[in-house]
Amino acid sequence: MKILVQGFIGLVFLLNTVTAQQASRLTLDSCYRSAIVNNPLSRQQALYNESRQLQESILDNNYLPLVSIGGQASVQTDVTSLPISIPNVVIPSLDKDSYKLSLDVNQLIWDGGFTKKQKELENAGLMINLQSVDVENYHLRETINQVFFSILLIIENENLLKISMSEIQSRLSNIRSGVANGTMLQSNADVLDAEIIRTEQLLTNLRYSRISAFYRLSELTGLSLTPATELDQPAFDSLPALNTRLRPEFVLLELQQEKLTAQQNMTGLKLMPRISAFGNIGYGKPGLNMLSNQFDGWAMAGARFSWTIWNWNTHKKEYKLIGIQKDVIETQKENFERNQRILLDNLSQEILKVENLIAADNRIVKLRESIARSAAAQVDQGIITSSDYLTEQNELTHARINLSLHKIQLHYAKLNYITTIGLLK
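The structure assignment produced for this chain is given below.
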């Protein structure tokens, strides 16, 4: 019933998500949620939980009685006999064939805590498996980041190229009027025509890149997206404080250490005593009376006790071996944190660099807009050629593209910083 409810909730969530995307702009957070629901690996969590429940049920069976049926028929070359004779006493000779059919019952009373520790070990294994899925889902979010921002860059480049082409077409209209009036050469119009064709080629390349990127995003999220889908660009103001222990990979290393600790706790149990009860009933020849040649039934009950008091310190060696494995993981954690500090510092410097580039881009764009306006007026008056105008117009377009590119790069760099720390949800 619980699985059905969860499935219904997931279906409602997915339908609501799709409806929301049709009604509003696509956000990065909605891509995360849809991608995780759509990720086949996410279904492993339910499978791991089901496997853990079955394993716990199996361990609980340790405290249930074990019932077995056995039988045996045999013939032997000799039997027990008395080496003396007693007057007036007839001692029958035993048959050399024997038969036995029995029902045996064994009940564990105490296993030294082995079953309890085994459950703890299985639970530690479950947490590792679940965390491994979280790691894969986090990597999926990183992939979503890359695809999402690549689409934003493509769309921004397309918009800027269209603005540039519109300005060139405006100049071309004026020049064609001049050509028709005989005040300008046809070559001036041809230069602008060629530039418009080149810009259309760039837009064609970008359009197919956008189609490919949207297809990839659709496959990852399971959403019905088209190249016309509008994306909501995320903005990040402040950055979180430095923390190297939030990534799911670091949590996974810690869980691996916890599992090894659970294994260490089980090594000493090999020296703990075991107590169990047993009982059996049977029928055969001979019965409990070994001097009888008749088929007979029997019953027996009792208790067993076993205790390994010395195993040549094997448990201590195993404990130390597992401790070494924990130390190995500790070195992996230290290396992971060091790499995190290096990467986060690089991202911090990248953010500062892009912020400075944007400040310079704003000044450059203002200057280039002024230069391009002047060049447009001059080409309309026939003072400069179309090639001269295109040079200034292309410089303006390049400056605008750089500004937009750096703005998107800044948001992406901040997102990478947040992602690298491990704060994506």
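Interim note for the steering committee: The chain is about 65% helix and 10% strand. The CA atoms of residues 177 and 184 lie 9 Å apart.
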